[in-house]
Design a protein that fits this description.
By secondary structure, this protein is α/β, with parallel strands linked by helices. The chain has a single domain, classed as TIM Barrel (Alpha-Beta Barrel), CATH 3.20.20. The protein contains 12 helices and 9 strands. It has an 8-stranded parallel beta barrel with strand order 1-2-4-5-6-7-8-9, surrounded by 5 helices. Helix 12 links the parallel strand 8 and strand 9. Helix 3 packs parallel to helix 6. It is globular, with a radius of gyration of 19 Å.
Length: 276
């Protein structure tokens, strides 16, 4: 073997080893995920627009509990520091209003209605009170405007007094790193979403690549990975599953065929617009 070839092989093997090490999840003191695995999860609750039950509303959460589903909730931080349940940063799709969650006060958000219903945007505290520890809850934390630490702190304040089973997950590794440092006992998951963008410029593009490729796992040490269906074949996801035996969740499932494929693959299903 020539010197050049040996160098190429050595660099390739070294890069592969470094990549695998960077994907390292929590190895020691791992939490028990058996109860999490028992459920399918309704994203935003078991909502039904035809019946006037919007996503991420209290009636949608009650419907999920009644059907025996776990619930995945989207959590954002409004301007006055209260975590609320809302999927998008922008308000227009769900409320027909201009502006964003992060730039609105709780009072302003409470004046809006979800999808022309009588339902208001719930706070995290109201959501957990509604669910009342009856089913597991996946709390997906969405960061904006560098609010990872403040969002994590406020979510922690609500969860510390909650008696039910829950996890925290995010596509932002800073959130998971915060919980690793401050609430190591919480179950935490890395969200893999090809559609997430943190902004323009090389720095943001690099950050998005590292996050999407799970290359900051060694800092956040997640317990599971939550993967958008469009990102199922991400090489890092398969390395995490094959090398580290990490539990995988897939979202968002919208057909029986997708559901069967996900369950056959050993993944936890997060669904909407269907009944499973």
């Amino acid at each position: 073997m020539g010197k050049t070839l040996r160098t190429v092989v050595g660099v390739t093997v070294g890069a592969a080893a470094a990549w695998i090490c960077a994907l390292k999840p929590r190895i020691f003191d791992k939490p028990d995920l058996s109860e999490i695995r028992r459920y399918d999860y309704a994203r935003g609750g078991f909502f039904d627009r035809k019946k006037g039950i919007p996503e991420n509303s209290l009636p949608a959460m009650k419907a999920a509990v009644d059907h025996g589903y776990g619930i995945r909730l989207d959590v954002r931080l409004c301007r006055d520091g209260v975590p609320v349940i809302f999927r998008d940063s922008r308000l227009f799709r769900m409320c027909g209003s201009e502006g964003s969650v992060e730039n609105s006060t709780l009072e302003e958000l409470k004046s809006l209605k979800l999808e022309n219903s009588e339902e208001a945007i719930p706070t995290l505290e109201e959501a957990l009170e509604c669910i009342d520890a009856q089913v597991p809850v996946l709390l997906c934390l969405h960061t904006e405007q560098d609010n990872a630490n403040s969002l994590s702190t406020q979510v922690c304040a609500a969860c510390d007094v909650y008696d039910g089973i829950f996890t925290v997950e995010s596509a932002d590794p800073r959130v998971l790193q915060w919980f690793r440092s401050n609430r190591r006992e919480y179950i935490r998951g890395s969200v893999v979403d090809a559609g997430r963008r943190s902004g323009e410029g090389f720095r943001n593009l690099l950050w998005d690549f590292l996050s999407f490729s799970l290359l900051m796992n060694f800092l956040s040490e997640p317990d599971y990975i939550s993967v958008n269906l469009s990102s199922r074949f991400n090489p890092s996801v398969w390395i995490c599953r094959l090398v580290y035996r990490m539990q995988c969740m897939n979202w968002t499932i919208r057909s029986e065929e997708e559901y069967e494929a996900v369950r056959t693959d050993g993944c936890i299903a997060v669904f909407e617009d269907i009944e499973v």
